[in-house]
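thoughts on my protein:
***
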Amino acid sequence: MAHLPSELVSHSQKVCSLYKRAIRCIRDWNHKIENYRIQAILMRERFDKNKDIKDMRYATYLLQEGEKELFSNQHYHPMTYPNSASGGAYGRKGETPDCVLDYWHPLEKARYPKYFARREQMKNEYEKWYFETYPDQKKTIKDH
């Protein structure tokens, strides 16, 4: 989900946001770095040309026109970052289950003797707790 501002957004923040979105739109359309840089420099020049405007009505008008121009020039398939909310890897976590460690070779386990000794102790404690809590489960495990 996008960041939703909880307070009022100033005019300068709106302009910065527009500039950032415009630069990303340019990147979407220009895949060669040379073309992208030229267009980005020209875009920065357009923004710098209007940075000293004191009349807020005219500045707001320019901001609205910029938003309209950006909307009309949007790329049909914009680039997204993999971990952003619209990216392909959003919300993925590559967590390996703990049981994989049981299949390690003894030579691999020998590298971390304290860890695996503590792990075996914790497994035994958990098994003891489990069968004390659920005594009828011990019978079903022995049957299989």
Notes: The mean pLDDT is 90. The longest helix spans residues 113-133. The two ends are 48 Å apart (CA to CA). DSSP finds six helices and no strands in the chain.
